[in-house]
Amino acid sequence: MARKRVEEQREREMIDLGARNAELIPRLERWCEHLRVKLVSSGLLAEATRLPIGRMAIECQHSKGMGIQAMQLDQVAACFITENCRACPHHRERNPDNAGREILREAERIQQEEGKAKSESTNASRRLLGLVRGDLSQALVTAPTTEQSVLECVARLEVPSQAEEAAKLLVQAAELAAEFFNDLAREVIAGHFPDIVHGGQCAEAMRILGNKRGSIPPVALRAAQHCVEDRFCHDSILDLLADFYTKGGDLPGIPTVAKIVSHHGFENVNIIHNPPKANPGQVRALMAIGRRDLSRIVDAINRLLEDPRPQIRMAAPVLVDALVPQLPELGMPILDRLIRSLELDDFDDYGTSVDVLACDAIGEIFIQYPHEVKTHLETAAVVASEEGQELLIKVYDRLNRNADEGPGLPNDRVLAALPIAIDALISVLMNALQPLSVRGQAADTLSHMAWKHPSLLVPRLDALFGVLAIIANEHINFVKENPGGDPNLPGLPREEPYKYQHIEHEIFSSLEKLASNSASQVFDSTEKMLGSLNSKVPAQEYLKFLLVGLLERLSGDHLVGPRVVPPLFNALMDVESILIRSKALAVIEHMLGSVGELVPDNMRQMVVIYLRDPYKGIHKPAASAMKYFSPDTPDQAKEILNLLMVQYGVYLKDQEDDPHLRVLAESAVRICRHFPQFFSAFALPLLIKQARSLNEHSAREALEEWKRSAPPSVKMSGMYIREVLEHFQRCRPNRDDWDAHDPAHRIFLSLFLCDTTDIVENLDRFYATIATLTPSDPFRALQFLSVLVHYEQYAPVVVGAELIAKNLPPGPRQDWLRNQALLTKAAAEVEVLTASGKLQEAVRVLTAEESRLKAYVPNKNSDKAGDVIRSLSMADKIATRLRRV
Question: What is the pLDDT of residues 327-337, one digit of tens each?
């Protein structure tokens, strides 16, 4: 939890980092007069504090190119100087008191220490191996043949390249012939428990020996207990201890039990950051302890839950989640401490959240004791912070999510606990004293439950409608009592109305899901409530607006759909409220597009009449409904098109309402699909105006609609080509707009489907488009040149290529494109000359371009990934050392 506290701590850390970077910059610049420290990118914190907080880099004109960009300037400096400044002939030191000398001196010291440590480690391993081999050699002289085989395999544990295979063979040997493992063999095997690679196999071999012989060797127990106290412990070691505890062995103390709980997530040693998990051996060991003395586990887990460090605390909820299903009596003694742990700091990055793990654990306890845990959560919410209350609600959300995550269907205990959770959430939503953020979290969770377990909410349908009514009433009253913007942030709106809208949306979403599963019951409740609401009362009007929207989902049910028409028609004719009539028109639009046969003629006629309504809230949704309207006669179609044209003329003066202009154009096109004879007179003028819109997305939509819907006589005409070319002169697409699925690219490709005569009519516009695009996007200009090549207009290709070569600015990339344009020009000239029979002149043109063809050289870059990784590792070590100094 405590996101604000964590954010504040993170901000302090960033300010401290910026202060360290600022202190280091002058000492770096004294190292060499060629070196420059650069702040590549920064944010608001850097601007506010005037500190170098952001991505730092070091530049030098004589560098080898090795360097990094990072927020920690000491790491950047360590990497850059060690990779670029050693024996540099251009080095010019400004002052002996600089950071460069310290970095190189520390780098030399680290290299010496690593070399010395490697030498000492090699010598120690050699001495240890000699001792073990000596003992084994002595034993091999007197031991029987079978014991010799085991001892030889044990000896291979000391050879790193053979140790893993030898450990696997020892596991097999323990299964087949446990009696051949003597004291020396067991001692050597136990000594390998801490090994991160084969230690687990060694522990498994000793566990098998213990089961075969009836008792675990004391040397194995001592080694296992030592591993438990260490930072790393194989799960098979905990499995071995589980056997010991199960057979009545001495139970460990509370600190050791806490250590066992903390060993999680080490299933695969090749992965550095594993997600936390409870491993089988670990669970067995704790179960064996808990069945004999539950208080030891309770005290150990509570001790971990009190630790303010999330990386230490996270082990406890992971194990609780795994243990409670098998050991339910563990849940209640640790519940309060689990709840209080939600107030402690969580990780501030994108890793595993300790709070989420704790909520999962509380949810598991909730399944065992739903009523008791609900009471504890409600009690804790009274004194918890707002953020803490949100996390307490998240317990129910995790309970719902985890119900379907395992294999198979949720068990009976989960299904029995969910209704209690639903009642708790509804209680939170109805409580006006609860913070809106907490009620929003409850609404989110209730919505998730409705989508996963709708049958559980149907009995609480009246409560859901009641919650929606309460929230809508609070929303309208708040807006009425608090007009204007946010008093703390002048110029910005209040955030409370948005929070109310979010809660309403989630409750409405829950009702929609129930409408899909129990349409008749939802419709009955909706119809009953609609009949009791008065549109003259603002709060009731708003609630009615929300409920009319629910008719949209109900109309899709084949049994309830026809019953929707009367209340919907009443809403359409509600002259007391523009808001409700607007919502009714939106529902009718949906019905026209999906279940148009349910819309009666009188309702359809009212939609046409509302096209003349002076209120924007009425004629706008009526115009949008025309996208799915099928006129009965040409006269009705013409009437509708005239009304749409009138609206377009009015709104064209207000360019800020571009979305409605797009709706009007689309509606006109859809009407003309039923009566194509009206396209040129009504739809085409609107599409042309939209194609000339300042909004490039609207313009491209109009051009695509033109290409898609126009009759053949006007589909790909010269007029269309003119509008496309003028569009690309006005709106120049960037690289992201030029992929295979983008409208801009599809519109460009449509130029390849036109008639040659129409292309020739627009050659001047092709020249203008090419000249306009060349300075900013020469590659696109070359693509338009390719259109002329496609239609074999070689003389215009020559003119276009000259325009590109002339208007290109200087630069290596531009020179490459200029050469391409000139080569295209030469090829076009050859075609022209060949067509006119001037073959010798064509050959001369080709010969003159021979040198230009040879100018293309492939670009080759070497891969230096390994060098970069090594330099980063050394830079991190140097920076860490210097920070300590």
Answer: 999 999 999 99
